[in-house]
Amino acid sequence: MTLQELKNKLRLVNIHPIHIGGSPLEKQYSTENFIGDIEEYFEIAQVLGVKAIYIQTDILEDEEFHYNEEGSNPDNELEAIDLCSFDPLIKEFKKYLVSCHASNVG
Question: What is the pTM of this model?
Answer without folding.
Answer: 0.49
